[in-house]
Amino acid sequence: MDSRRAIRTVLNEARGLTFQVMKAPWGGLTLRAYLAGEEVGHVTTETLDDTKSHLGNLFVKPAHRGRGYGTLLAQKAAQSLKEWGVKTVEADVTSQKSYRALVSAFGTPSATAFESIDEIPATSYHEVDGEGKPGDGWAVSWNLQ
Ligand SMILES: CC(C)(COP(=O)(O)OP(=O)(O)OC[C@H]1O[C@@H](n2cnc3c(N)ncnc32)[C@H](O)[C@@H]1OP(=O)(O)O)[C@@H](O)C(=O)NCCC(=O)NCCS
Question: Which GO molecular function annotation, any one, does this entry have (predicted)?
């Protein structure tokens, strides 16, 4: 972790960010981040087979973005998936911010559907229209250590 991210992590711990990890009815996990009792973000995973999961719905409430919460959610998800023996994680990435958060958590991807991060819009349409529509993204996968 670089020093800028390390500082963000310490600040977030000082702010009292807490996490709840629950097994989801569909066999994956639901992970929620709370600040002073308010849910500020979440991420979900879906189990594809014994060793493979899909990560989706990484979301931080607009008022709380840019403080490292998305990265921390992705890191908590990575930790839980590794503990459960997951070896491969797939995601559909829709913005540079989410890609950066996921790379902080999962490391360099083993495969991507793009040549460079510049091909991903800096701001996804999720954030432009504010409706949180699910949409197509750029497929990315990671082999977990
Ligand atoms: C994507 C999302 C979860 C990121 O959450 P967040 O808490 O704002 O993310 P972080 O603060 O952890 O930042 C993640 C990265 O984006 C960068 N970033 C954050 N806000 C930024 C901004 N306004 N401008 C430029 N970069 C920014 C951060 O610097 C960080 O990169 P770094 O670690 O290399 O420095 C959030 O923007 C969101 O909910 N978007 C709408 C839903 C969505 O598109 N989900 C993704 C589906 S794949």
Answer: acyltransferase activity, transferring groups other than amino-acyl groups
